[in-house]
């Protein structure tokens, strides 16, 4: 089911992108260098395609509920602790990696989305990068893919490693999924982030700390690395993104949706 969902998401996403680009071309967008609007819409439909694929395959054998994907309410103490521990671990390892391999440069996605070309493009890119992508990617990778793969029963020397193996595979696929939007030098840190987020999902049984950390990382990368905003402006972007994500996904964890 997991590889089938990945394949279906890829196929449907690419077909949807072709349709968007053709429609955009009729409106004056270039097929080789799409306008920011076409690029943003294309990225959104790709993420939506993977979400749809996950929902489809998860519903084949039984009725899936939001709780099955990790939309579970947890205590503030557990959520904040998971966020801080995972964040410190990720940024510490990434800093060491950057110093060893002289990591530098910027991601390609923000510039492709035209963040410096117009205010409308900046707003659209910020919404996608800091809100839509964290929700959709966490739903697919941590909510569905990791949740499915960790059902494996793999033992080595009598120790169960199915969950760790699922986290490793999900992290690798998460990094590879950003091949077109990030430079190759960033794929390993992104893969490690995907692995760490799997551990957060595992230990908390909730997707909310994962979305919070994912959004925080994207907001920091966009606001600091790409736009060179002030700390106050970046904080506003982070908090604003969290509030939007909470308003969209929060109702999914209401008691009436929960499973025992």
Describe the protein.
- This protein has a two-stranded antiparallel ribbon.
- The model is unreliable at 256-260 (pLDDT under 50).
- The chain is mostly helical and 260 residues long.
- It has helices at 2-26, 36-58, 76-101, 108-112, 119-149, 162-176, 187-204, 208-226, 231-249, and strands at 155-156, 159-160.
- It is built from 9 helices and 2 strands.
- The chain has one domain.
- The longest helix is centred in the middle third of the chain and has 31 residues, at 119-149.
- Strand 1 and strand 2 (159-160) form a beta hairpin.
Topology:
Blueprint: H1 2-26, H2 36-58, H3 76-101, H4 108-112, H5 119-149, E1 155-156, E2 159-160, H6 162-176, H7 187-204, H8 208-226, H9 231-249
Antiparallel strand pairs: 1-2
Number of helices: 9
Q: How would you characterize the largest beta sheet?
A: 2 strands, antiparallel
Report the uncertain regions.
256-260
The dominant shape is globular
The helix/strand order is HHHHHEEHHHH
Q: Care to count the β-strands? A: 2
Strand numbers in spatial order across the main sheet: 1-2
* Termini separation: 24 Å
Calculate Rg over CA atoms: 18 Å
Provide mean pLDDT, rounded.
89
Brief summary of the model shown:
The chain is mainly α and 260 residues long. The chain has helices spanning 2-26, 36-58, 76-101, 108-112, 119-149, 162-176, 187-204, 208-226, 231-249; strands spanning 155-156, 159-160.
Q: How would you describe this structure in keywords?
A:
260 residues, disordered C terminus, globular, mainly alpha, two-stranded antiparallel ribbon, single chain
